[in-house]
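Batch manifest, entry 17 of 40.
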Amino acid sequence: MAMRGIYTSVNDIRKRVFAEVARLSYDYKDGDLSQMELIPYRVIPGEVSTYRESVFLERAIVKERMRLAMGLNLRSASEHAPVSTGAEECVKPEKYYQPPLINIIKFACHKCPDNVMKVTDACQCCLAHPCREVCPKNAISFVNGRSVIDTDKCVKCGKCMSACPYGAILKMERPCAKACGMKAIGSDEYGRADIDQDKCVSCGMCLANCPFGAIADKAQIFQTIQAIKSDTPVYAAIAPAIAGQFGPELTTGKMRPALQALGFTDVVEVAIGADLCTIEEAKDFAEEVMGVSTSETAAADDNCATENGASGREQPKKLPFMATSCCPAWSMMAKKLFPKYADCISMALTPMVLTGRLIKKQHPGCKVAFIGPCAAKKLEAGRRTIRSDIDFVLTFEELMGMFEAKDVDFSSLEEQELPQAASADGRGFAVSGGVAEAVVNCIGELYPDLEVKTERAEGLDNCRKLLSLAKAGKYNGYLLEGMACPGGCVAGAGTRQPIAKSAAAVGQIKKKTTAKGALESSYKGMLEDLEERKILAAPQD
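Output type: structure tokens
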């Protein structure tokens, strides 16, 4: 995770590719996509490569980046065809992501060594030889004043690394594989990284941690702009993690005019959907885990308002614990690895989907583009039961490409406060721990006598451990929060700022928010308007 928050040449190339695809879409007319052939030469100009050993290789990689950014499938080095081949599919604004979402551009992969113990130049061939003494397989010898590890004998236990007083022995791990909490990345027959799509949950951590920029996800930049150019209103639904993502000049108050400059009709905060999600999860937890009836009828029949203000009646508990639902990579991981506990994942729809339903109820016939930090949201939006709620998903990186394409000057924009009255807790969903905090606060308001125990994990490795302990019964009666990205949504694969800086920006927004909890949100009445709770809890295929 060492690269996160550092602006590198990989980020720069990605931004330029996104900007060029956005320009292509804004300029597109009459079926002419011939400009695609020129884009690699604009992104990688001149005759000498800056980044790799060959300018031709770099342009070939850019071509595949372009295709992925337009939602097209990746091609191998053995395929010979113009970059625009099949690009007419992109013109369809209803085009959804076709799996796989996360792709490895094979000829960009560095074939990094994986799980190898390596002796560095720091080795002093010291008299004590502690590395040799602790090796359980006698895999270490000394040649020409240097420790040498016999890779055929080595079992990668790491004891030599721990014992070396100079720190001269390293364990080399492929960065993408190290970042993958699903253990979905191995090697192909040529030693290049390879993704097991049956294990992958599209969290994008491999993408964010590959120092060679060999991994990329598909995008809907082209399709979103085509919809904007049509007569159909397109609303931007912005995730809470957007705080501070575009630097100090693009404040929250300037977000609305900035997005309208791109052609969006208006802007809605996904934090209002987070408030709705909070209320749903609070009620579900009280009912399914704590055994409290949340129906108004039961409360009225039993006259069960207690002296301390709690309401609800005891009923049989159905679930040993409940896990939050808002992170799609976390919930997908849970269902893949712990299928017997799939029912323990909250059935409440995610903030993205709830916000999409709210927008489409208020503006029938419109389209909704979710703008957030997450790669996995792209797959969530493509689910059969969700497609009618969210039409497009863009990351903050991709949105920056659109700002570049339209030359939007943030400093010239006027401040306009967003009209939505989301709560501080809803805006706090962006940071690890924020979802559980919001639900606990809401339960405290609705059922003051309930004591809620919580546990959380960030990063899929830790999430897996959390659910393993829950399976063993350690967290019975708990509310569990899982976040695939270490740090929460502010650390998503599509973010632009350092994680700590982004978390601080979210904290500042929360402090300025008048409504503190979900029950203070002016949109909580939408729970009834959205056709009863059974519709809010629609199955997600």
